[in-house]
Design a protein that fits this description.
Elements (H helix, E strand, L loop, with lengths): L1 H25 L8 H4 L11 H13 L2 H9 L5 H27 L5 H9 L4 H30 L4 H17 L6 H25 L23 H5 L8 H10 L8 H26 L3 H60 L6 H18 L4 H29 L5 H20 L8 H22 L11
Length: about 475
């Protein structure tokens, strides 16, 4: 119990201290009008109350990551808590804040034009293809997972749930942000927080140990290596590239730059707390990684959610918990497709306020998502995990270039960018979806690549400290 509370306390202190430091480095200007004011179109750009923007941001970025990712990460034992805490404070919170606030400073632009501006136009098309493919992949994952969960709970076939979810996606992607997302998502966010806290309270008053095998050693039943696998598996509970696609959505609704820290950095810290809760619930309920692994092998992370929820809250409470996780997934899936629509619209320089143009782009992106939703979920999840962290790495490098060009403390993002570079390269070299090399060789390649990336950054920009327009 004390370890869990200490971890939560560290996240809160991290928000209060390091989050303020990040804000100071960025140098906010509360007097500067935001894109929500200057570009208001009553579709994607509009001022929303800060508390509502925070809850929408939290629900959008959460997805299944702080639940499924934390459960899978819990297989490694309590060491997963360290990555959730330090990752959220030093990497994830910084990543989300920079992605959101840099977008605010550039008219609420999505990630593709920001990458072009700070990393060069040569990778624009390649990154656009990667970005759209990633968002469609993610949207498919966030449709398939709840569809499978709902099919298991009801007698309705999986295909009908997929049709229903994508019909909803179409509306949420097409309509102005205040019609569905701005109206209902804050309530869904509160439901997720409430049921997570309810299960935590039951754990507190019970007599089972929080961490029965308290050790920072690797406790994975299959002896999978902590580095780099755990750092990719937990993802959204510590740092996630998907968040960089969502922060610009809320950058278009931000009333004042002073709300950036509680909304962007604060939502990541809140997600870290949710990840701590689910990792702890998985370890405590099954009394260690062995029992947890048996359930995951038989019924996946969704089976763990169902078992833990019903075990701690009973039939009715468990049903609410499962519904909250289903909503969590669906509401991140639709904003993935919305982000894809905005990304394509920004690239084509289309007016997103035109319903005809929104309709055409929405049909294109949703058709791609539907096609992906009939692939094997396990395989898609493997590729999603790595591409998600790769996107986070690219975003951190973009933020590093932004800080450097504006004469700011670029080490803030350079250190996590270098670390995540080593994680992504080591993973793709080692894992079966990549080159499947021995772990020691993969680590060497990943480390050398990260060092070379830092050297390239230092050499190529040593004499290029130039001012950036539109600030």
């Amino acid at each position: 119990m004390i370890i869990f509370l200490t971890a939560v306390g560290a996240l809160i202190v991290g928000y209060l201290l390091y989050g303020r430091f990040v804000e100071k480095i960025f140098s906010i200007n509360p007097q500067s009008p935001t894109p929500a004011v200057t570009k208001n179109d009553n579709v994607d750009y509009m001022v929303l109350p800060s508390w509502r923007v925070f809850l929408i941001q939290f629900l959008n970025i959460a997805g299944l990551g702080p639940v499924f990712g934390a459960i899978l990460g819990a297989l490694y034992g309590p060491v997963a808590l360290l990555w959730i805490v330090f990752g959220s404070i030093l990497a994830g919170g910084v990543h989300d804040y920079m992605a959101g606030m840099i977008s605010v400073r550039h008219d609420g632009q999505s990630l593709v034009p920001l990458i072009e501006k700070y990393l060069g136009s040569k990778i624009k098309i390649l990154f656009l293809i990667f970005m759209i493919g990633f968002l469609l992949l993610l949207g498919a994952v966030f449709a398939m997972s709840p569809a499978h969960m709902l099919a298991d709970l009801t007698s309705t076939p999986f295909v009908w749930w997929i049709i229903a979810i994508f019909a909803y996606y179409f509306l949420a992607t097409l309509l102005p942000i205040d019609k569905i997302i701005g109206r209902f998502y804050p309530l869904f966010a509160l439901l997720l927080i409430a049921v997570s806290l309810a299960m935590l309270i039951v754990l507190f008053v019970g007599d089972s140990a929080f961490y029965p095998n308290l050790s920072l050693t690797n406790q994975h039943p299959k002896n999978l290596p902590i580095f780099p696998l755990m750092f990719v598996t937990i993802a959204c509970g510590a740092i996630s590239g998907f968040h960089a696609t969502q922060s610009p959505l809320m950058a278009r609704c931000l009333a004042n730059e002073k709300y950036g820290r509680p909304i962007f950095y604060g939502a990541m810290i809140t997600e870290g707390i949710v990840a701590l809760i689910w990792a702890t619930l998985g370890i405590a309920f099954y009394q260690g990684s062995v029992g947890l692994n048996e359930v995951i092998d038989n019924s996946g992370p969704g089976g763990v959610v169902q078992g833990v929820a019903q075990g701690y809250l009973g039939t009715f409470g468990g049903m609410l918990a499962i519904i909250s996780v289903v909503l969590l997934s669906i509401t991140s899936g639709d904003t993935a497709f919305r982000s894809a629509r905005l990304t394509i619209g920004d690239y084509w320089q289309k007016n997103n306020s035109s319903i005809k143009k929104r309709l055409i782009i929405s049909i294109i992106v949703l058709s791609g998502g539907i096609a992906m939703s009939f692939f094997d979920l396990t395989t898609i999840w493997l590729y999603f995990g790595w591409s998600n962290q790769l996107l986070a790495t690219i975003t951190l490098w973009m933020a590093t270039f932004y800080l450097f060009r504006n004469g700011k403390f670029f080490w803030l993002t350079l250190v996590p960018a270098g670390f995540m570079t080593s994680v992504c390269i080591t993973y793709i070299m080692f894992d079966k979806i990549g080159f499947h090399l021995p772990l020691d060789i993969s680590i060497i390649i990943g480390t050398i690549t990260a060092i070379l990336a830092v050297i390239y950054f230092a050499l190529s920009h040593r004499h290029k400290k130039t001012a950036v327009t539109n600030l």
